[in-house]
Model the fold of this input.
Amino acid sequence: MKILVKPQISRIIGIILNSKFSKGLVPLFVRKNGINLKEYEEEKYTSFNDFFTRRRRATRIDITPGHLISPCDGYLTVYPIDKNSTYRIKHIEYHLEQLLENRELAKHFSEGWCLIFRLTPKNYHRYCYVCEGIQREYRKVEGKLHCVRPVAYTSLPVFIENCREYMKIESDFLGHIVQMEIGALLVGRIQNYPCSPKVLQGQEKGYFEFGGSTIIILLEKNRIKIKNEIQERSQRDEETEVLLGEQIGNT
Done:
């Protein structure tokens, strides 16, 4: 396990998935996941990752000020934030402070909302900004491998932290939010675009290569009302399927 999660191994797998030899995986992946290629721009893919990051022909995005939109296609669960909350992401349990590696920022969102968007392999893997605002902070957290004794959720003597990148955005309508992308330590590359200090609601923020598949949004206390049906499903430990750009809450 320690060998498999070394950065060198991750880079080798990334090289393979970006090579022309990986194109042969595409037809099998399409059949297995029931992907309708007519929904995407026509092109000849040069590698598996080139296909995985394909562009959709058209996406309807809600740009109404004061609306919180989904950053991606996927499955959403919402959780209230308190100091004892933990969040299971890609089979790993995190406290918010640990996830952010910032105690003060974690405290800032106390009693707010944590929104977790889970993307599956069949989903569109490009994502957008959930609101308009000014970028106030950006951080990249490299994945880590910790040597520990076996614990309840694994029989292996390791603990893995996933790679993650997040941006703190100040919005006139939504207050301060955090938008975070998470990729697996093994491959899971996050490709965020350079941006100006001001970002726009619905503006494409970046994409995941194969292995990256989770987005988190943190909201301040009493700022946003999440749709009732989403809250109700989350209380039953059920996910809500959402689409890139659709409204999921409002001020």
In short: The helical segments are 7-17, 25-33, 48-52, 96-100, 103-108, 228-235.
